Amino acid sequence: MGCGNPTALATLNVGETVLDLGSGGGIDVLLSARRVGPTGKAYGLDMTDEMLELARENQNKAGVENVEFLKGEIEQIPLPDNSVDVIISNCVINLSADKDKVLNEAFRVLKPGGRFAVSDVVTRGEMPPEIREKVLLWVGCVAGALQESEYRSKLAAAGFENISVEPTRIYRSGDARTFLAGNGIDVDSIALQVEGKFMSAFVRATKPRSCCGPTCCS
């Protein structure tokens, strides 16, 4: 299950600095770099040497120079305060065990007025743990997904404003039927508990120009 295309949904301007959290093979970083132009910069952050190596190979093939791939975790971003205009990510934040720390770090590195614009998996309403476990067989990243209201609350607690959660695809029980049935699960017995409860969404927020979050603007 893909979450969406953050580079298509995020507004990027020439000369801006972009950071992709969990950049993997670097495709979104390279696309962003072209959009911000030679006066801008695109960073990719990933924790695995294998993905960083692949991303750098892709960068060389693409011939894009205004890109830098960093090794690190999204809970501890290796960039200074107020250094990034836009943060993007594609189906990665939901995998973190400490989402509050991720969002606080995102707030810290964004410049005042900077934008948070990520694709992620989000749930709606209560979903019993046993249902999450069954759906996990179909799509691994739903297990740690936040409820929509909880996502909003955590962004607000980090200091963000102008928060919005826009569904890009709402998943139905029928979407999982073939896969779950193949694993011996009676889909009809959980259909009502799955129907419309999880979705791919585009999550937007803005760091205030007059900073008042948990990390003070320097």
Protein traits:
8 helices, 35% helix, eight-stranded mixed β-sheet
Report what the structure shows.
This protein is an alpha/beta fold and 218 residues long. 35% of the residues lie in helices and 27% in strands. The protein contains eight helices and eight strands, in the order H-E-H-E-H-E-E-H-E-H-E-H-E-H-H-E. Strands 1, 2, 3, 4, 5, 6, 7 and 8 form an eight-stranded mixed β-sheet that branches. Helix 4 crosses helix 6 and helix 7 (173-182) runs antiparallel to helix 8 (187-194).
- The percent of residues in helical segments reads 25-40%
Number of helices: 8
Question: What is the 3D form?
Answer: globular
The biggest beta sheet is recorded as: 8 strands, mixed
**Topology order in helix (H) and strand (E) letters:** HEHEHEEHEHEHEHHE
Uncertain parts:
none
Tell me, rounded to a whole number, the average pLDDT: 86
Helices and strands, with pairings:
Elements: H1 6-9, E1 17-21, H2 27-36, E2 41-46, H3 49-62, E3 67-71, E4 84-89, H4 99-109, E5 110-123, H5 129-136, E6 146-147, H6 148-158, E7 161-171, H7 173-182, H8 187-194, E8 198-206
Parallel strand pairs: 1-2, 1-4, 2-3, 4-5, 5-6
Antiparallel strand pairs: 5-8, 7-8
Helix pairs in contact: 4-6, 7-8
